[in-house]
Specification:
Rossmann fold; five-stranded mixed beta sheet; binds adenosine-5'-triphosphate; binds magnesium ion; five-stranded parallel beta sheet; 3 domains; elongated
Length: 362
């Protein structure tokens, strides 16, 4: 692919010398002395690299930079600065410019920065391609699991059930038990596959399409309700406190309930019989904060960095019951899709508190 350059600088002489320096390099180059015209050129010629003079009459270099970024954030921009304006170059870089070129510059300095700019652009494009590829792989993997594993397994489960009924009178107790165990194993496998598919199918951009105003109280009560049976079995009381909010929260109710359920299931699973689990919803400036606190076994410090990763089950997790290590991974994906964060505070032997921060809207 050809590397294209656009240079926007109000000094004609700068444009000329840049063009001259790159003559023979074969890079297509477009130039203009005017910021507004420059934006047009960027739109039309789709350059890989844009040089922008920060100090121009009319539309400012900063505004040009900002508009280019809005057009295509992957275009690499470099600012050209006068002698005494290094400070504004730094400002420009804070806003996303890749580098700066102080005036006056030598041909070698210019060539070098052009090379670096193209190299940066190559890396940016490569990263985009990789992200895309990862997305494709994820979809393919989900399709394979679904068609090649889940469907046949569901068919086996079906036949097994039929067989069990047909043989009802002919099997002895031991044989019946063995058939039942088979069925339980298949149920477990299917549940695991369902969870895997769930992890892979939390598509952040798709989820966003279903966002609407949610009631935090509803999310909390639905989640608590669905975990209640498990909690009762361990004689664990779940208490809730939901502060009234002054602002609205948008999101996807279903997946937020799922997130809270995952946290609550953990809290119950990793707590002692007869203890308490507390769910809280409160408001902080610009945020809705949801927390689930237990007084259970806690999480060792060395495991904390990993618990949100796919398939990570801690030592305690493996000890308790069957664990796929996906509950928190799903929770984190969902929270991230909502533009929020999920964190944990835990002390072995004393308990854990998981906290979700969601951006709230006025
Ligand atoms: N409230 C908690 N108290 C103590 N340990 C916890 C708690 N929540 C999570 N953990 C630890 O973090 C690990 C990962 O949790 P996660 O929910 O992702 O998976 P899991 O509970 O093992 O399996 P599942 O996929 O069934 O949820 C657990 O295995 C456990 O070690
Ligand atoms: Mg879990």
């Amino acid at each position: 692919m050809e590397n294209r350059i656009c240079i926007i600088d109000d000094e004609e002489v700068v444009l000329d010398s840049c063009t001259l320096i790159l003559e023979g390099s074969g890079y297509p180059i477009v130039t203009t002395t005017d910021g507004t015209r420059g934006l047009q050129l960027v739109q039309e010629s789709q350059p890989d690299l844009v040089f922008v003079d920060l100090k121009m009459p009319g539309i400012s270099g900063f505004e040009v930079l900002e508009r280019i970024r809005a057009m295509d954030p992957n275009i690499v921009t470099i600012v050209i600065t006068g002698f005494a304006t290094v400070g504004s170059a730094v400002d420009a870089m804070k806003q996303g410019a890749y580098d700066f070129l102080p005036k006056p510059f030598t041909p070698d300095e210019f060539r070098l920065i052009v090379q670096r700019g193209f190299e940066k652009r190559r890396l940016v494009l490569e990263a985009i391609a990789l992200r895309h590829e990862k997305e494709l792989l994820r979809e393919q993997f989900a399709a394979i699991i679904s068609h090649e594993v889940r469907s046949p397994l569901a068919a086996v489960q079906q036949s097994l059930m039929a067989l069990q009924m047909e043989l009802e009178d002919r099997l002895d107790e031991d044989q019946k038990k063995r058939l039942q165990r088979l069925q339980v194993r298949i149920d477990d496998l299917l549940r695991l596959i369902h969870t895997w598919l769930r992890v892979m199918s939390v598509d952040e951009s798709k989820l966003r399409e279903t966002f609407r105003r949610i009631s935090v109280a509803t999310v909390v009560s639905k989640a608590v309700e669905s975990v209640q049976p498990q909690a009762m079995r361990k004689d664990i009381e779940i208490t809730t406190s939901v502060e009234p909010l002054s602002c609205a929260v948008t999101g996807d109710e279903g997946t937020l309930v799922e997130t809270l359920v995952n946290l609550l299931v953990n809290a119950v699973k990793y707590s002692h019989t007869g203890s308490q689990v507390q769910v809280r919803a409160k408001e902080q400036p610009d945020n809705l904060v949801l927390s689930v606190a237990d007084t259970g076994i806690g999480i060792p410090k060395e495991e904390l960095p990993y618990i949100f990763e796919d398939f990570y089950a801690g030592k305690t997790g493996q000890m308790v019951e069957k664990s796929s290590g996906l509950g928190l991974a799903i929770a984190r994906r969902i929270v991230q899709a909502h533009g929020g964060t999920i964190t944990v505070d835990s002390e072995p032997g004393r308990g854990s508190t998981f906290t979700i921060c969601l951006p709230a809207l006025e």
